[in-house]
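step: validate -> pass
step: tokenize input -> pass
step: predict -> running
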Amino acid sequence: MYGYISIVFVSILVVFTQHAARVLYSMGYHIPIFPHTPGPCRVLDEVVGGSYSLTMLSNGTVLIATGSLDGGIYASDMSNLDGNVTLLKFSDNFAKAIFHPQSISSFTCPKTNKVTVFVVNHHPNKHCIEKFVYHEHRFFLEHIETIQDLSINFVDDIVAVSEDSYYFSNRFMHTDELSMQIERYAMFSWGTVVYYNGSNVEEEEVGSKKHSKGEVVTRGYMPSGLALSPDKRHLYVAGSQEIKVYRRSVSDESRHLVFVLSLPVEAHLGHINVDPSSGRLLIGAANSHAEYISHSQDARNLCGSRVFEVDADRHGMLGNLRELFANDGSELACATSAISYRNTLLIGAARAPPLLCKMNSTYPMNFYT
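step: predict -> pass
step: emit ->
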């Protein structure tokens, strides 16, 4: 009997030790950082409250979601090397007092050039998706509707497919702090990527109201950044330390995804943006998961920032991985998103204004080929 108990105890101890080692590795305490920039950089101080998420229009205009409570949306002209910034106005029918813009994505209609903008509203009392039409010459966002989806848990990112459909990522299944920490440290793959199509969606009645319910298309451990390839045949999903590629079928509204590959990256990855001409991926990242958590709890704690560029082809294969920017957090803490346009690089951060860098001469580090 004693021997049996000893075996059970040792087995439990081994399993616990293995899991603890996995958690420690996922925290990234071992990841070094070697600061470098692609050229001279300056902070766009005009942006107040943060620069958590970025999306770029075809003319080089970048829309910036601050990620802060009672925050706003800014427009920055990256075709101008000075990165001129303007705070956008909203239509009168939109309740800006309960607006917490967490993530942003846009879709431009190729026939009419109408720009539809989707924004994740992360207000503590109202997690939802806000839909706007952007009037560029007036720097104005016309509010179209608020989408309350039963599939929304703790949304991190969103990517527009059309003016009526999109994917969004739930980093966690739950929204209360204790449950999220259990998911994080138990390393449960309870996060989801959800597909929403406004014209073909399941509805569930809650009380006297009907709420839409998107379709869960894949699950994983803390999925964050989302992006589509230029031809929309592949969906890229960033996790804590990896990028996953899924093949989607344009003909059947991409309800089912086929896993293609996974690329490990030693950093706490944030949002992905795709260069429409080359198909390359740009990813903003915190140096490690541990630094990200520490900075989230107290902005005075430094969190290293990194930006990666990844080659991608039309078959969904990922090639060279290059590091374009790295900083220990003293210049830019906790990068979350990045976009390049011509010879400029704009880097967003969780709790700081974006950093604009001129890429005069770049000496990226190659990690994978």
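step: describe -> The chain is about 10% helix and 45% strand.
step: cleanup -> pass
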